[in-house]
Design brief:
With 50 residues, the chain is mainly alpha-helical. It has 1 helix and no strands. It starts with a helix and ends with a helix. The mean pLDDT is 94.
Length: 50
């Protein structure tokens, strides 16, 4: 099956969106880890001051 240029561009666009979504997921996961660590640190600091 031979694809037209438009079909190839469409597939490239979909692949790019998928790659962007994967990168966003990875960044969100990292942000969640960072937030969790910050919350733990804040809790530890509160524990020290009380």
């Amino acid at each position: 099956m031979k694809l037209t240029i438009a079909e190839k561009e469409l597939i490239d666009g979909i692949n790019q969106r998928a790659a962007n979504a994967a990168a966003m997921y990875k960044a969100c996961k990292q942000n969640a880890r960072n937030a969790s660590t910050m919350a733990e640190n804040a809790g530890a600091e509160l524990g020290e001051t009380i």
